[in-house]
Design a protein that fits this description.
The chain is built from 10 helices and 36 strands. By secondary structure, it is of the alpha+beta class. An 8-stranded mixed β-sheet has the order 5-4-8-2-1-10-13-12. An 8-stranded mixed β-sheet has the order 25-26-24-23-30-34-33-32. Strand 1 and strand 2 form a beta hairpin.
């Protein structure tokens, strides 16, 4: 699977984090609420040119304080400060900040929020505008999470915005993780943790750039419910500088996979006198907790009474695979996904079924429940979707996962079912998790599985017929058939917005063509290809006696996405791909083909991409066949120079022009 480009530095960094060597201290940060002119006069980020905005300061501090009786011995207090320079109009989205927090039973509570906007006025003086209380408000996300929203006044291109908040967390065993690197570049990032020495935390670092680590142990006092606790405090500061932004790149998977960060886990509590409690979580602990969770395992114990008719009808079907298909279709066609990804059913599958709407957790736990009630052995399988990022099976933390699906093993094959997908058949591995890892919640320990699909591809076939008249106008029609993952993507786009679908797949990619008619068939028949019939016209380019046209029409390979000289992310297509283009073109009787590209076969050095092209001229008729086959789904960033060069040649060949001229000229 993925080759994570950061992995080679982790072992070395672990040694660094726990060494006792003192590290040179950083200069003091500018005070909150105070700013110098140099940052307001900044026009560009010197270490990441062209950025929309830059995070000047990203500072965090975590320490312990009095706990809640019968809840936690100690609480953790988390402070965070962020200062951002807006460099371009496209960076104005950072004039609105948001803070997600877990507010179920006040598990996390934001105690204080402050903010400022800084500008230079007409005379070049610094103008500071405080964020008013009315511009800070809380917004509920779901049953457990809320969001604090901060809107900065008078923010514009050139402004600097800054906010700080304090969060009380009802836990003494869960340290906040820290992300050094984000979508925009970061000039200075520091995280300070202050931990009583009887708590032993392990750190999982994902870092490649230079990091400074300062460590100190001092005597300290912590207020508890029983009085003042005297203990030693381990203080660690983690500091990084000048980190480029992790911007979206074509087919990059999750940006999170490339963000440099620290993740913490409480491993032990040392009670003294040799008494040490081991708290390292195991996958068996995860299984036990999930099975006992009211929002997960307990939801699978009973089916909604209103769904009994689905179970009864399914039980009349003797073939087990057909029965599975029936229940899968019944759930996905009666439930609407609210686009919230979750492994839990916070409101319960009964309410979700009654409302015919819910999260991925609601819908797929309902599916699992009904399948089991219909005597189809089904287990939940947890995933981190491609957009959410990679999972680490050596790191037993539920927070890695963002969705749950149904796992069914029948005979010598298995099915992964996602009932939030209303357009794909049950045999197609869900696009969001194909060729990733899943954790099956079964037995005492669960098990991991690589969810591989080599059978289904992103498959597009275009058959074009064009006739060119003496005025240089081509009129024609085309049949485009999409199968498997191409069908899934286009069906969703078609059902969501038909006009946008027409523009995205036909008008915009085929510049200069006029789409006169578009008919789409089989959108509701997941066993058939999505059929798209097009009528089009185009005025050929001309120069003197020559006219030109391309045969790379409606192929879905209209634009090379790999033009950047450098890349930070691996290339993750997700699935294999197969493109086929057929064409026949007729020119006027008094014209001839003057330039027809040669027949060619071009193969990537590792044989993972194969391009073939054949062209045959028969008087005034040109027959064309082009195909591109991708046998790999993933390329590491180290392969990018070779990959980019091949792609450049591929698109040059795809877009070579056909030249015609009038006879005798």
């Amino acid at each position: 699977m993925h080759t994570f480009y950061l992995k080679n530095t982790i072992i070395a960094l672990l040694a660094l984090l726990y060494c006792n060597t003192a590290v040179i201290a950083q200069k003091n940060l500018p005070a909150f609420g105070k700013i110098g002119k140099e940052d307001l006069e900044m026009k560009d980020c010197d270490f990441d040119k062209g950025a929309d905005a830059v995070k000047l300061i990203d500072w965090g501090n975590l320490y312990y304080d009095r706990g809640i009786p019968d809840v936690s011995f100690l609480n953790t207090i988390y402070e965070k400060r962020v200062r951002i320079k807006i460099l371009k109009e496209s960076g104005l989205s950072y004039a609105n900040a948001s803070i997600d927090y877990y507010d179920n039973n006040n598990e996390e509570k934001i105690l204080k929020v402050e903010g400022y906007t800084y500008n230079l006025d007409e005379t070049g003086n610094i103008k500071t505008t405080e964020v008013s209380k009315s511009s800070i408000y809380s917004k509920r996300i779901n049953k457990f999470f809320s969001k604090m929203v901060i809107t900065f006044p008078e923010a514009k291109t050139g402004s600097v915005v800054e906010f700080m908040y304090k969060m009380e967390r009802r836990t003494d065993m869960n340290l906040k993780d820290w992300v050094f690197q984000g979508r925009i570049p970061t000039r200075y990032s520091e995280y300070q943790v202050n931990v009583p020495v009887f708590y032993h935390f392990s750190v999982q670092p994902t870092v490649v750039d230079s990091i400074e680590v300062k460590e100190d142990i001092k005597d300290g006092l912590i207020t508890t419910n029983d009085g003042i606790l005297t203990t030693q405090i381990l203080k660690k500061n983690f500091i990084m500088h000048n980190l480029i932004g992790i911007r979206n790149e074509p087919f990059m998977g999750s940006a999170r996979d490339y963000q440099q960060r620290l993740e913490f886990q409480l491993s032990q509590i040392d009670y003294g006198d040799g008494k040490v409690r081991d708290l390292r979580t195991k996958w068996s602990d995860i299984i036990k907790a999930l099975n006992e969770d009211a929002d997960f395992g307990k939801q699978l114990e009973w089916a909604p009474a209103a769904a009994q008719s689905i179970i009864d009808e399914a039980m009349r079907i003797s073939n087990i695979e057909t029965r599975m298909k029936y229940i899968y279709n019944a759930v996905r066609k009666n439930m609407n996904w609210d686009e919230d990804e979750s492994i839990y059913s916070y409101n319960g599958i009964n309410k979700a079924f009654a409302s015919k709407s819910g999260s991925s957790g609601d819908i797929n736990l309902l599916l699992i429940c009904l399948l089991n009630k219909a005597d189809i052995a089904t287990a939940p399988i947890l995933f981190s979707t491609r957009e959410n990022g990679l999972v680490n099976n050596f790191y037993p933390f539920l927070k890695q996962f963002n969705t749950v699906m149904a796992y069914v093993k029948l005979y010598d094959q298995y099915f992964v079912l996602d009932a939030t997908d209303r357009v794909s058949g049950y045999k197609l591995v869900p696009e969001s998790i194909v060729n990733t890892k899943g954790f099956i919640v079964e037995g005492d320990k669960g098990r991991w599985i690589d969810v591989i699909d080599t059978k289904h591809k992103y498959k597009v076939m275009a058959a074009v017929h064009g006739e060119i008249d003496v005025a240089g106008v081509m009129k024609g029609d085309c049949l485009v058939n999409c199968n498997d993952y191409a069908r899934k993507q286009r069906c969703e786009a078609w059902l969501k917005n038909k006009e946008q679908f027409r523009n995205e797949y036909f008008t915009k990619p085929n510049n200069g063509l006029k789409i006169e008619e578009l008919i789409v068939n089989n959108a509701d028949a997941d066993s058939l290809p999505l059929e798209q019939k097009v009528k089009f016209s185009s005025v050929l380019s001309s120069s003197g006696n020559y006219k030109y046209f391309t045969v790379n029409l409606f192929s879905d390979l209209d634009k090379n996405p790999f033009m950047a000289d450098e890349r930070i992310a691996d290339i993750d297509f997700g699935f294999q791909q197969d493109y086929t283009i057929f064409g026949n073109y007729t020119i006027p009787e008094d014209y001839v083909f003057d330039g027809v590209p040669e027949n060619i076969s071009m193969i990537m050095p590792d044989t993972s991409i194969i391009f073939t092209r054949t062209m045959q001229v028969d008087e005034n008729l040109l027959n064309v066949r082009m195909s591109v086959e991708f046998k790999r789904t993933f390329y590491t960033v180290s392969n990018y120079p070779e990959f980019k060069e091949f792609y450049k040649k591929l698109f040059a060949k795809l877009n070579e022009q056909i030249v015609i001229k009038k006879k005798g000229t």
